[in-house]
Amino acid sequence: MTEALADRKPRLGVYAFSGCGGCQAVLLDGALLLALAGRFDVVHFAALGPRAAEAPVDVALVEGSVSTSADVERLRRIRDSSAYLAAIGACAASGGAQSLRGLARDGDRWLADLYPHPEWLDVLGTPVPLARYVRVDAVLSGCPIDRRELVRLLCDRLAGVAVRPDRRPVCMECKQLGVACLVVARGEPCLGPVTRAGCGALCPRGGRACYACFGPADLVNVAGLGARLAALGLGPEDIARRFRFVAGDVDAFRGAGGAAARGPETP
Amino acid sequence: MTAGDGTGEQEQRQIRIPLLSRVEGRGGLDLDIAGGRITALRLRLVEPPRLFERLLEGYGYDQVVDAVARVCGLCPVAYQITAAQAFERLFGLEPPPWVRAMRRVLYCGEWLQSHALHIHLLAAPDFLGVQDALAMTADHAAALRRGLRLHALGTDLIGLFGGRAIHPVGVRVGGFHRAPAVADVARLVERLDAAIPEAEDLVHWTASLDFPADEQPFTSVALGHPSEYAIGAGRIQSGDGLDVPASRFEEQLQTFQVPHSTALRTRLDGRPYLVGPLARLNLNFRELPPAVRVVLDTLPTPVPTHNMFHSIVARALEVLLAVREAHGALQAYEPPAEPAASVRVAAGTAIAATEAPRGLLWMRLEVDSRGVVRDARIVPPTSQNQERCEEDLRTALERFGLGRSDAELQGHAERVIRNYDPCIACAAHFLRLRVRRHRITGKAQSSSQNSVT
Predict the structure, then answer these.
(1) Measured between CB atoms, which of A42, A49, A207 is closest to B22?
(2) In angstroms, rounded to a whole number, what is the distance separating the alpha carbons of residues A53 and A15?
(3) Are strands B12-17 and B27-34 parallel, antiparallel or unpaired?
(4) Is the confidence at residue B182, as pLDDT, over 90?
């Protein structure tokens, strides 16, 4: 990192917003945690113990989506006290599953449907990714993030080089690993052609279609894959739902499914 | 964090913990003390609601198995298997014995991983008097390393079936997407073999810790099965005589909201109850396999026990159980002809309950004739434990001594809460309520003003 850091360990903060906690849990893995503690001074990571939410940090890892006014204020304070802020995971990167609420025509009624006293809850509306409110220095998508990608991000940051996650589609990983194409060979509705690599082609290697938990790759042909899925027999709404899944309300996937492009209907 | 009020003759204090540490998710605690008594105690789960149950509507049954995992990054397998079993029951599909056995192994992997994490990273620092798990590297390095090895074994056991430990991709309705390779299984069997003595040592280590004397009356609730320590199958039973199939649990349950928590709460017969490892051990210790039972019988810890601080021993015993069961089931492993039975979709209501690491997880999914979800309800463990945890805190803190310093009270309160291993992400993102809102809610509010039983 910078010269000023030469005489001390860089400070790391891990912060949680709305989500399942799974991306933090990637860090709670034993060997990784001990290595992390060797390289960083962990100043805030409530799930592990350290609590200094306002302390300045050199690297902030932030998981979860933003969905309350208190969240917005807290996120801005974290941004102000962080030299470098990485959004980790689908919720922080693209809103996550909970952001699909914005696609439903009656999404604004859901709170009242589920809670007897919605007025006791502080909720802004549809949960959104961090970048909607603050500048984000790096984005690591994935539901959950891949541990090797996280290690690479931290190592690159420690070395002072630019963080550049893989932006190619999962198809490239299948080709490199010699996995037979599920769309071509088995007629499976695999979303690998539009999904960012980084998982190591986890689902195709496990014998199943990719469901886009890493969000979109760069320069993808959503309409083309949508047409292929239609040719496999999937209806427009089903196609839309396969694109609009755990990564959330992803801009690049808008338009998938043609007529259903506004988003899935809620009965 | 703390605002003392020294103006009155009688001591009045307000203790505020804005953010609990060493728990999953965001929660806090408010404690008001006046005249030597607790006048208000609020366990605040403040994770924003994610409204997951509505999100599921419109998705097909095959996608639901992957969607529900996203409720919880610490117990995704529990959600996946519960949803898969609910659909299988509705579709009249009996998973082959291989699938049932391997799902139990996968579930054991999640118990192992989750419990090893809680024991070592979240709970042990309290018992050892250190700041956090990283501080254990000084005087308790061997115990920490053993714990991390067991945790890694759980992680890899889940990975064997699902490729990754968090939101694994192996489970489908009818079985698995792919059967593990024989060579991969053989490597894990070796590690499981080596882990048996380590897990036994872990049990003895946890039993040797210092436990505050804090017996409290409470009702345990867990799945019960006549021939095995229940994980994925059985009836929902309690120490008070409740004994119903999963399909009849909802009608027993009272659900309500309180102003200080984003997670809806539940009661049975109008009273709080406990789910989780200690509840399971209390109800099901007779079903432990003999090799685990003999270890239990050598412990100074009485079972059944009504001291929640013993929950760390219950977790350790379940770690040993998980290692032994996985070891036993994988020893003679052979891949099946097909990793999944074929599915014939039917409309109706799919219901199932299983024992997630943190306790009973119940799910109802209504689907149409295409298998598309039209209504959903999920009851996760932590939302069920909220009431019991608040009740426990009142008694535990009064026994601890309300005259103690704010820092001591805060420390003890957090310890009590950690005994429940709360997963606030799960709790706050669920539960659906339709009926009896005002009456039950009013009851809940008044109950939080007074000590209960």
Answers:
(1) A49
(2) 8
(3) antiparallel
(4) yes
**Whole-structure pTM value:** 0.92
Type of residue at B135: A
Top residue of B45, B47, B367 to mutate, by most chain A CBs within 10 Å, is: B47
Contact assignment for A29 to B151 by CB distance below 8 Å: yes
pLDDT at B138 over 50: yes
Position A251 scores a pLDDT of 86
Kindly give the interhelix angle for B311-331 and B97-117, rounded to the nearest 10 degrees: 140
Give the pLDDT confidence of A214-243 residue by residue, as tens digits: 999 999 999 999 999 999 999 999 999 999
Q: What is the DSSP string of A61-125?
A: EEESBB-SHHHHHHHHHHHHTBSSEEEESHHHHH--GGGGGGGSTTGGGHHHHH-S-GGGS---S
**Nearby residues of A203 by Cβ (< 8 Å), 6 or more positions away:** A190, A192, A209, A210, A211, B163, B169
Chain-centroid distance of CA A141 in Å reads 4
Phi/psi class of residue B297: alpha, beta or left (left: φ > 0; alpha: ψ in -120 to 50)? alpha
Which amino acid, residue B434? R
Model confidence at A30, pLDDT cuts 50, 70, 90, reads confident
Alpha-carbon Rg for chain B, nearest whole angstrom, is 22
Question: Which alpha helices (H) appear in A133-201, and where do they start and end?
Answer: 147-159, 170-177, 182-186
Q: What is the mean pLDDT of residues A17-21?
A: 93
